Amino acid sequence: MPLPERPAWSMPAWSMPVLALCGFAVLAIGLAGLQTGNFVADEFRRSPVLGWLTLAVAATGFGLILLGIARELRGLLRLAAVDTLHRDLAGNDAQARARAARRWLARLGPNEDAARVAPALAALNDPDAIVPLLRAGIEAGLRARADALGRRAALQVVAGMAAAPAPALVVLLISWRGLRLIRQVAAVYGLRPGLFGTLSLLRRTAFAASAAAVTEVAVNSAAHAALSTPLLAHLAGEMAGGAVAARRMIVLARAAAVACTPLPPG
Known about the structure:
Helices cover about 80% and strands about 0% of the residues. By secondary structure, it is an all-alpha fold.
């Protein structure tokens, strides 16, 4: 029986902005490292004490930069692993589904629900019951924690809108709280996204957030049109705006949870 041919390796189809950004990063860090190395060598020629001091400063600075890059890459890799786990859990391969379930339990870290589900998963003989077990035993608890974070963010946004003296500050408050909420929900699911990971999660949840924003505009317009008294219209519009902004935080928390979970939709 002939062995199946291995697929030919192909370079990932990166976009031009990503390639340009990577090129600029390599040039900036590489040229800065060469320049710093020459400067350290010159300091060693002047004095060993100045040389070692300069080397320590340079090593600390570049070490922090590389640590930040490593954390960003780790966050992006963990986010990409969610898609891989989703594909395996939604596939027809029973062994791949079981391995994906165990990997997800390991990625969640110390978790009471995961510790309770792990023995049941090991003793499970029906591959079709893996996803329902994970959904009932783990996903329900994670989704409840994400909803609690969304409700807390909603209360904070309503309180902030009441105290904000300018509409521009309200926009900044909602934007900042939404980004922080996405990071909090990602942490619930065992992810630690950095800047680019947060932007990627924001892209995944942008549709739900934009739908909530459109709903907010519609509700505000309906409230202003329904009331003829200027004072009542202003008060009703502000109340409707606060209610929809709070609803937006709840919807955003649920959309972020959908983006972070590897389970297929039920």
